Amino acid sequence: MIVRRMWVAALLAVIAGVGALAVLAFRPPAPVADAAAGEFAAGRAEQHLAAIAQRPHPIGSADNARVREHIADTARGFGAEVTVESDDVVQPWRDVVRVATAHNVVARVPGTDPSVSGGKALMLVAHYDSVPTGPGAADDGAAVAAMLETLRVLRTADVRNDVVFLFTDGEEFGTLGAEAYVRRHGVDGLGAVLNWEARGSGGPVWMFQTGADNGPLVEAFGASSSRPIANSMASEVYRRMPNYSDFTVFLNAGARGLNSAFIDDVRDYHSPYDDLERLDRGSLQHHGETMVGLVRALGDRDLRAGDGNAVYFDLFSRVLVHYPTWLAVVLAVLTVAGLALGVRSGRLRLRAVFAVAGVAVGAVVVAGALSFGLWALVTAVRPGLAFLALSEPYERGWFVAGFLAVGLAVLFAAVRVVRRWSSAEVIAGVLALTAVLLVATTVAAPGVGFLFQWTLLLGLPALWMPRLAFLPPLVAAAIFPPLVGTLMVALGMPLSAVGVVFALLAGVLLMPLLSSLPRPGTVSAGVAVVAVALLAVGTVRFGFDPDEPRPNSLIYLLDTGTGRADWLSADPAPDPWTSRVLGENPERVTLTDVYPMLDDPLMRAAAPSLALPAPTATVVEATEGDVRTVRFRVTPTASAWRTQVTLSDRRACRFGEVDLPGATLELYGPTSREITCDLDPGTPLEVAVADHWIGLPAEASSLVGPRPADTMPVQSGNRPYDAALVRATFRL
Ligand SMILES: [Zn+2]
């Protein structure tokens, strides 16, 4: 018995070691300061980034034009054919209609023999605009800089296909540049689209989304990337999430391609800390190595070749395993048949096998439910957590460890229950559950099947030789840990339960080994205490300081018609800074006329009326007949970044030739624009025009004092951020 226990302990140590190795390997490569001319160097890309990420540069802003010129000049300097395509875009977006001029930079490197793909080009895409609240070093400056450096590398050894580097505008406010590109060119001329993103300021780049017929592209990615981090489950998960990027626009138009991003350190996302200082240089290097690898791998081949999808996953961030979906189905059928054979040939009580499987399911469900409930408890104690981007606490490690410990405690409790059955029955039980999951995923989401395919296949021999029960958890240790970690980052702490569920799906494979250890009940109780302690420490330590600033917002709203001025904030409660003007107990109001996409109430308090310049709306031409038609001009002030126009009762409005399907318009950039509306005869058109300034103007910020170092503005979803809104109303 002692020998057996020591043997089990040694096996568990090996399994833990493999898991640790998988986690440690999940990191970007070391940044290269200055490589040979034909290689990618983050050090060189960083010089472009220093120019790009000086200040926020959202669509329509002066800094946006500055960044665009830098990109166009640099690409021209590297010998590409560069055009700046400027297109008006009208895009309905929930309750508003966005109107903007998107300026895309298109840099083309002609191939030596584009007929190899029938003239179809390989395209790399990144957006050069940022949000108004941050300089966008990671999102998406790192990709833009890496693309410029990749363009330079490409010119040292041309490839056969045309390669197009597309730097889009306006991704952050509705993928406007990508829409403009697809409307102008379509996607027929594109063999493959490789999109590059960031959500956070560090970590390895993982290829998390593909289009249809991804087989050849996945194969090229696996063969060419220095660290090919990807799995086909991510694509299945992402497809079911409401997220979008430029890649979505190309996919919807029917293009093939891959989408890659780094997503660690999400706390910096869309904040002033998305800057050059915080950016992980390894992520920049990883972006570039992957780009250069893919351009070389795809540059000379027929991009039209091949169809069908692949199932794929990486091992230790170094090797990409991939095979066609049809093969995954065949493998699944054979493996499940093998399991049936093994269960039949063993002297097993089927009831016991089902009971073990049932206990395993129970463990997965209980661990998920407990994690979900515990997070709800944590946010009840600390409501401030809900206001962090994606509710992601700064010291998330305490919570990740805590939730994984919850899972471990539940696992040991389950082990205590299954000990009453023979080890052969326990093995058969967990493999039976794995088989059910394999069948279910192969039918519903084939990309997920690999999670269960390999643990089950390599576990089959254990049905005949229980001593081999260590094989399934050993395989799982190589596959699951980085995947669970990434799920917890991608979904955030509010959905950490999903990560715990996947951890337990792998964890239950340990039950045959663990059931030979003494006192699992005591171990379970001990681990539960540790879990609660870890979560408690994370909860107690939660707070804000200059390194971990509090996201908050303050908006100055002025109505120049009435002279009324207000302070507004979307925060849950006043903090030491905002309470200087909001007081301790401001009124709460829903202002859908000011923020049409925001249902949550805002805090409001009276503010002194400042002499700020207001936008105007003036009639250019009005005709009266069966219909009254008013053509009018909206002119923002030079300080405006965006101008909101709200139209009263009207039959229809147009911008140029395009109908405006909504009453609230968002015009981007301080550009004067003409709008035409049809009305019933004799009816005036009421037009409310509101300039939106980026940040508080000096006159307003002097009233509240400078932003404390332990706070920051963040753009997150529809939540308002620091701005001055200057409103004027007109009857035309
Ligand atoms: Zn982005």
Automatic annotation (TrEMBL):
Q: Does the keyword Transmembrane apply?
A: yes
Q: Name the domain of life.
A: Bacteria
Q: Name one process (GO BP) from the record.
A: proteolysis
Q: Which residues form a coiled coil?
A: none
Q: Where are the transmembrane segments?
A: 323-341, 353-378, 398-418, 430-456, 468-490, 497-517, 523-544
Looking at the record, the residues that make up the Peptidase M28 domain are: 104-293
- What molecular function terms (GO) are annotated for this protein? metalloexopeptidase activity
Q: Where is the signal peptide?
A: none
Which protein is depicted? Answer: Peptidase M28 domain-containing protein
Q: Source species, please?
A: Saccharothrix ecbatanensis
Which key words tag this protein in UniProt?
Membrane, Transmembrane, Transmembrane helix
InterPro entries, per database record? M28_fam (IPR045175), Peptidase_M28 (IPR007484)
UniProt keyword Membrane present: yes
